[in-house]
Amino acid sequence: MSEYVLELKGITKAFPGVRALDQVQFQLKKGEIHALMGENGAGKSTFIKIITGVHLPDEGELYLNGERTEIKSPKDAQKLGIAAIYQHVTCFPDLSVTENIFMGHEKISRRAKRILWNDMHAEAKRLLQELGSNLDPRTKMGALSVAQQQIVEIAKALSMQARIIIMDEPTAALTTRESEELYKITEKLRDQGAAIIFISHRFEDMYRLASKVTVFRDSRYIGTWGVNDIANEDLIVAMVGREITQLFPKRQGEPGEELLRVEGLGKTGYFADISFSLKRGEILGLTGLVGAGRTEVCQAIFGITDYDKGRIFLRGEEIHIKHPWQAMESGIGYLPEDRQKQGLVLDWGIGRNITLSALDQLSSRGWVDEQKEAELAKSLAEKVQVKAQSIFDLASSLSGGNQQKVVVAKLLTAQLDVIILDEPTKGVDVGAKSAIYEMISELAAQGYGIIMVSSEMPEVIGMSDRVIVMREGRVTAALDAATVTQEAILEAAMVSQTIS
Amino acid sequence: MEKRVLLGRRDFSWKSFFLQWEWMLVLIFILVNVINTYLSPYYLNGDSLRDATMTFLDKAFIVLPMVLIIILGDIDISVASIVALSSVVMADLYTRGVPMELAIFICLAVGTLCGYINGLLITKFKELSAVIVTLATMIIYRGIAYIILEDQAAGKFPEWFSYLGWGYVGPVPFIFLVFVLFAILFILLLHKTTFGRRVYAMGSNATASQFSGIKVDRIKIIVFTLAGLMAAVTALFLTSRMGSTRPNIATGYELDVIAMVVLGGISTSGGKGRMIGAILAVFLIGYLRYGLGLVNVPAQMLLIIIGLLLIAAVMIPNLKGRPYKGKKSG
């Protein structure tokens, strides 16, 4: 019998265009809480999906209790006693707690195939009590708080005799007190012999619970340490410390006059008290963890969603923007995070995508001048260096980086002063990344004011003149290019009390 | 980095030109006419063909804006009720002594208003789909028509009003000329203007269209308002041809119209299809009905044939002409 309940060796998984995991290893002992840490995009999610049978690895070996095993489907994982609990609970809100716990493995009488409701309710009650909860199993799932829903999810894991439990950022949506409850339950599970993989961005969680910590970075395994054997600073370096090469172009020129000023912007439940200003020719980095409210702030400025507090000034005048077309008419453009769903008409050619925002200037009295249109599309597509044969190539046939260039080209057709870029290099390979960086700094040099939302630390530091960090809907730091460090950003982005 | 040059022109290929659903429709159209001629010696008679054309063209006016609605990815099932309401209002006003010219104008205004209300509701209440909103207004508009006329017929219009439905300009039916005029307008609107381009964009990707600064709500309201206006135009021609009106006039037109649009190769998931396809489908179904009627094929049989054609239209998406199809890069 092996010392490890779960061991992975040399796991590699590639998706079209991206290597999500590269020769990753991991070892989990019985009765251990093992923290797994890393930046967004480090490969944690893919790794979890491999353990839970959602993805099959391209290479590598997986051992359960020392035996080589293949987990081919989520059902397999369930049978082998592996369960995952996510930050956003995936439940059926209109069904009862009992139904959620027993979904897919209901207790059914042998002969009549009747559902044994009483047995199930009783069993649900017992499981919940074991976890120290007095929830009525007949309550509808949707009526519960996130913390309570997580407890139900854990009860569900227990009802399936899970021996390996993965918790994916379970505390991200919880208050301090609820987190404390969750810690206790997690410890209880450990004492009963379960092995737990705990993923979190909060150092607090790690120090409070875990005995071991493993760090992934850039789809690779970096190392495993005892929680008390590694200094906090070293851990941060392990998580973010990649070499910043010449990826980022040098920029000259001083920022000009103020273009955009946001004062005390707030939207109940999403963000509050957001204030910043943006100058001509400046790149303002807006960073923080996924879910910190960055996109929501940008979409409020662009008029996709509304805000209920605060004021926005453009070139010194207050503006009230309710629709994206108003934003674009006043000179604010937005490059959305999801370019396939929000940026492109995929079954159209490159050319028509580029001119979609420019139809008014390409027409007289509503009639499209197709000659003029083709010329503009061609010149812009060449300017941003889209790799394609002709402007009639379908947008869907392009790689991620080239699709992004098309969306940028579309922005360039409008008369803009401010450009908001939401994760401009997400899912783009390194070559296209550097092209996009060059484009961004050229735009700044031309006098655009640029807000760049990004989760990628090196990109934020390499490109920005100033950096604003958000956490849980609030600005937690405003840093200058001269003094900004990854550590400073991480401290502001994560819960910081326990770091010092 | 090397400077890239992109082609600004697309190479023309006869193969992809002919591999379009519209040619399929032309083929079926010819086939229908050949079979009809073969089946009945009375089919290829100028006068009766002309009369047949006049009877099926009234609902064709609604087909034109319905193409826009379905390209948007929406649907409007209230159009037949709008026909009824605007027709009934016109007849009622006329019987109460309002001059016919004014009654016609009000008929058009009522249709336009009904369409505008549809568009307003659909854009204001985004959680409601167009099918739900127009299901509700379908019942409401028809209900108002019943309140106004109480299941009576109204008519006795002035002599000249029958010209709309029965008149000729030389040898050509007046209704045919008006339809051709509207058809050309709608073809230009959809394929040559910024408006039409934006309609296609919204049908293909509504979110990206909104993010690109398109006034999506305004365009949707205009499209539904156009449907209301064209339903009122149908009401004029239909009422003229019938000589009187009843609240149950044009019952079932919405499904006929939608069937013609779908047969015309316009995808119900939005963003694809061309105006000319739906226009071809109007004539295809019209002559099919007329020809099979001549040889006494039961009406139910006809429905089955149209149903089969519809399934074929949906099943051969690879043959369908894609408006902005480009060459795939390797």
TrEMBL record, chain A:
Keywords annotated in UniProt:
ATP-binding, Cell membrane, Membrane, Nucleotide-binding, Repeat, Sugar transport, Translocase, Transport
Q: Where in the cell is it found?
A: Cell membrane
Q: Could you tell me which InterPro entries the record lists for this protein?
A: AAA+_ATPase (IPR003593), ABC_carbohydrate_import_ATPase (IPR050107), ABC_transporter-like_ATP-bd (IPR003439), ABC_transporter-like_CS (IPR017871), P-loop_NTPase (IPR027417)
Keyword match Transmembrane helix = no
A GO CC term? plasma membrane
For the ABC transporter domain, which residue ranges apply? 6-243, 254-497
Q: Does the record's keyword annotation contain Lyase? A: no
What's the name of the protein?
Sugar ABC transporter ATP-binding protein
**Annotated source species:** Brevibacillus invocatus
UniProtKB/TrEMBL annotation, chain B:
Q: Mention one GO molecular function.
A: transmembrane transporter activity
| Secretion signal, residue range per the UniProt entry | none
Q: What residue intervals traverse the membrane?
A: 20-39, 60-90, 102-121, 128-148, 168-190, 219-238, 250-268, 275-292, 298-319
Q: Which UniProt keywords apply?
A: Cell inner membrane, Cell membrane, Membrane, Transmembrane, Transmembrane helix, Transport
Q: Which InterPro entries match?
A: ABC_transp_permease
Instruction: Please give the coiled-coil regions recorded for this protein.
Output: none
What topology does the record note for this protein and the membrane?
Multi-pass membrane protein
Question: What CDD domains does the entry give?
Answer: TM_PBP1_transp_AraH_like (cd06579)
Give the subcellular location: Cell membrane
* Keyword Transmembrane in record: yes
Q: Which terms in the GO cellular component ontology are assigned? A: plasma membrane
| Keyword Cytoplasm (UniProt) | no
Instruction: Give the superkingdom in one word.
Output: Bacteria
Q: What is this protein called?
A: Autoinducer 2 import system permease protein LsrD
